[in-house]
Amino acid sequence: MRKILLMPAAFLYKQAVRLRHRLFDWGVLRSEKFDVPVICIGNITVGGTGKTPMAEMVIAYMRQTHNVALLSRGYGRRTKGYLEVGADAHYRDVGDEPLQIKRKFPDAVVVVCERRAEGIRRLTAEHPEVDLIVMDDGFQHRYVEPKINIVMIDATRPVQHDRMLPAGTLRDLPEELHRAHYFVVTKCPENMAPIERRILRKVLIQVAYQKVYFSRFESFRPQPLFPDATAEEGIRHGQEVIAFSGIGNPRPFTDALAENYRVVEELQFDDHHVYRVRDVKAIAGLLERHPGAVAVTTEKDAVKFANRDKIPPEMRGRLYYLPINISFIDDSETDFLQKLEQDVRGN
Prior knowledge:
Blueprint: H1 2-25, E1 38-42, H2 51-62, E2 68-72, E3 83-84, H3 91-94, H4 96-104, E4 109-112, H5 116-126, E5 132-136, E6 148-154, E7 182-186, H6 194-204, E8 211-219, E9 223-224, E10 240-245, H7 251-258, E11 262-268, H8 277-289, E12 294-298, H9 299-302, H10 313-316, E13 319-322, E14 324-328, H11 333-345
Parallel strand pairs: 1-5, 1-6, 2-4, 2-5, 6-7, 7-8, 10-11, 10-12, 12-13
Antiparallel strand pairs: 3-4, 8-14, 9-13
């Protein structure tokens, strides 16, 4: 019933999105090309599809042969305009995902700017050594025409069965997928049948040169937020954990924890949640209720707890985060990255 009631709003949103794309197609609104190759990593749905782990994978590979920079809008930040991200920045000023990437790749240039074309112009002027830009979440932006578009697709929410916002999770038209060069389908089940892959390929591929890869998230052992306050042995297999997160789709995160630990409580916040004193108190209350448990969050949320002065001393040794990366099915990661490098260097 709720979806039926939201259908008129979804129809109006769809028409507005379609009109905007037509304005770009007709040249009324203009896309700008740049001499520096731009790899855009985006999606057409709301919620987590793995754009940040994919950006980290691309940066880690490309920085072997390129001076790579990351450009992000810096969603959720309280600042405006162009800012270069430092490893000691506050996430409220630059956004949680850009800060996470900067701390993982401290030598890489990371900037935020809501006007992507302006951000590229300034980035290349101030850092002429940069010869490759990874643009986070810009598939709908269109004021920048990337050399390569990588579109992330959530296997648990097939686009052919989804609806436009607010009735569904689509924020862009599936018909616009013809602009993608690579599709990376994430969150694939362990036993994904070949016929399921064929169906997805048929749905996604609209142009002959498009390539589809299938992947799943791979998690590692939880790491302490404050290593100097944590016991060396870390978390034991089967230990009680309290899972808390502020991401678009927390289900894979809690499922990954449940594979090795006993999840006794869950706290779920909105995507890009700003943690306040009351949230810290809520987590502390759950830890007090479960004396043998530790609290585990996502890598993206972990950057928001870097200021240890705001964390009670008794909590610091019980806070962990769960590192994840994207694991390609059938060992196709090398093929993907090598083809991506060829396309960066080619015409």
